[in-house]
Design goal:
globular, binds zinc ion, 578 residues, 9-stranded mixed beta sheet, alpha/beta, binds (2S)-3-(carbamoylamino)-2-methylpropanoic acid
Length: 578
């Protein structure tokens, strides 16, 4: 699948020539020793012993891996939420992303109730375009249902290059949709060939549990966890998959936080459902025991929804599933709030702005917990940090691979170097880091975005607004190939049958229908019988007509398979095109 030319926008900045020599290229499907030559924002050559073109900067990558830049599938830069605004804006947040080896983010545009989706989209573009330092795209939220929403979804798909829409089963009264609204949303999303994203937690149950916690006098961050137990996430994951499959819409579960929901996704995939699962840096790198910390700020710093799970074996388990293919992609849900913002909920956990960091540290955390533990190899690392996202969101092979013609979003990755994560040294605006003190092997030593070196020797060289909005075509093969075949073979069955023409119950007793059989001339006496009127009372010669008012046919006693005509028989028509 190549990206249509109308979706390939021209880089905004002057480009350098860069030759990376002596490294090992790692793609999701294979790795090999090769040089990589970049010019004008594009990978121009991949091969051994490339000649250095005039004016090219040469980078010695001996002992290093050359990998596609990371794609963070889930961020909320400068998001207005819970009475405040996330502190990492599109500038600071994307700068930090680049320092950590992520060269693209997909942020969330979340309309407020009643706000037209198209207006929200324009607003988010207005916020992001002048600030982003790396390429970006947007998921648009279907945060309410009503007049104009379906039309806006279609317009965003057809005119703006949006191919993913986010729904919430939590945040009651703010973003939450009811089941019938989910069904309607899925249906429109499917009709357009886009992907449905789901925040899966049961918002009604959370509301009741929250009241219960408060009645019990629990007001600290541990109340956040206990009001949103694992089952509340798992139930919603299951329900969202069920509803999406009724609408035959491909589904992507954001933020897989628990073993239970990961298992639901894995089982559904085993049954052939088109569903993807996105664990995040937080759920892979830390756990929910922090909610019980005596230090309020520390505990509140981990508040996010769904919460981290207190079972300390959860991160390892999620990593296992990510390694074996049951889960496919990683994001961060980066949505950061400083101490004073978290303090909005100092006496009431339900007022603590939800969100944690991750955009800068995701790549290192996954390398440390996934590759250094032997759970996955470098190619799988590339798949889950970049390539699979590019495929699912239909940007492949423009993004997510080192090959000729791809965008020059490239990271030179030192697989053995280490760094210690800290709020004191990170490039994010937030004053807290959930991975504080974690030593990670795997460090981005050089990051190249759109063919420009933006991170080298621990220094950022970014330009505000240099990032581009990346429009994404519809019908991503990764999500739709199976679905489009199923649409043809799994059409609903309609049975052609004679209408029921017997008596019908009324409060006054059964009444005969005023029914005139096709091609037959009725006489009043044929229809004056009461319930149970036998064929005898009709006075018709059944042997001659082969027709019965009870629906019986003259050959009903002859054994045969079926008298019905199916519009689309199970097994399908023979005209399917693959
Ligand atoms: O839940 C989310 O995705 C948003 C709205 C931010 N909060 C969070 O817990 N990450
Ligand atoms: Zn989120």
């Amino acid at each position: 699948m190549t990206t249509p030319s109308k979706f390939r926008n021209v880089p905004k900045t002057a480009q350098a020539r860069i030759l990376i020599k002596g490294g090992k290229v790692v793609n999701a499907d294979h790795s090999f020793y090769s040089d990589v030559y970049i010019e004008d924002g594009t990978i121009r050559q991949v091969g051994k012993d490339l000649i250095t073109p005039g004016g090219a900067k040469v980078i010695d990558a001996k002992g290093m891996l050359i990998i596609p830049g990371g794609i963070d599938t889930h961020t909320h830069m400068q998001m207005p939420f819970m009475g405040t605004v996330a502190v990492d804006d599109f500038y600071q947040g994307t700068k930090a992303a680049l320092a950590g080896g992520t060269t693209m983010i997909i942020d969330h545009c979340l309309p407020s109730k009643g706000e037209p989706l198209m207006d929200a989209y324009e607003k988010w573009r207005g916020w992001a375009d002048p600030k982003v330092c790396c390429d970006y795209s947007l998921h648009v939220g279907v945060t309410w249902w009503g007049d104009g929403v379906a039309e806006d979804i279609t317009a965003l798909c057809q005119e703006k290059g949006i191919n993913s829409f986010k729904m919430f089963m939590a945040y009651k009264g703010i973003f939450m949709l009811k089941d019938d609204e989910l069904y309607k949303s899925y249906s429109v999303i499917k009709e357009n060939g886009a992907l449905a994203l789901m925040h899966a937690e049961n918002g009604d149950v959370i509301e009741e549990n929250t009241k219960k916690m408060k009645e019990l006098g629990i007001s600290g961050p541990e109340g956040h966890l206990q009001s949103r137990p694992e089952d509340v996430e798992k139930e919603a994951v299951n329900r969202s998959i069920c509803i999406a499959s009724q609408a035959q819409c491909p589904l992507y579960i954001t933020k897989v936080m628990s073993k239970g929901s990961a298992e639901v996704i894995s089982k559904a995939r085993g049954e052939g459902k088109v569903v993807f699962g996105e664990p995040i840096a937080a759920s892979l790198g830390t756990d929910g025991t922090h909610y019980f910390c005596k230090n309020w700020r520390h505990a509140a710093g981990h508040v996010m929804g769904p919460p981290l799970r207190p079972d300390p074996t959860t991160p390892g388990y999620l990593m296992d599933l990510l390694a074996n293919g049951d889960l496919q992609v990683t994001g961060t849900d980066n949505c950061t709030f400083n101490a004073d913002q978290k303090a909005l909920g100092k006496d009431d956990f339900s007022q603590i702005p939800n969100g944690v960091n991750g955009v800068e540290d995701r790549m290192s955390v996954i390398w440390e917990k996934g590759v250094m533990t032997g759970k996955m190899d470098a190619s799988r690392f590339v798949a889950v940090t970049s390539t699979n996202a590019a495929k699912i969101f239909n940007m492949y092979p423009r993004k997510g691979v080192i090959q000729v013609g791809a965008d020059a979003d490239v990271v030179i990755w030192d697989p053995v170097a280490t760094r210690v994560i800290s709020k004191d040294t990170h490039h994010q605006a937030v004053d807290f880091n959930i991975f504080e003190g974690m030593e990670c092997h795997g460090v981005a030593v050089v990051t190249i975005s759109q063919g420009r070196i933006v991170w080298e020797d621990g220094q950022l060289h970014v330009t505000q607004g240099a990032g581009r909005f990346i429009p994404r075509p519809l019908h991503a093969p990764e999500a739709y190939n199976k679905i489009l075949i199923r649409d043809k073979v799994n059409q609903p069955i309609k049975i052609e049958r004679e209408p029921y023409d017997g008596p019908i119950w009324t409060p006054d007793g059964p009444q005969a229908q005023k029914y005139v059989p096709k091609g037959a001339q009725s006489s009043p006496e044929e229809f004056n019988g009461q319930r149970g009127a036998s064929s005898k009372s009709s006075g018709r010669d059944l042997h001659k007509s082969g027709f019965s008012l009870s629906g019986r046919q003259h050959d009903d006693t002859v054994p045969h398979r079926s008298t019905h005509k199916a519009l689309a028989p199970p097994g399908g028509k023979s005209s399917i095109m693959f």
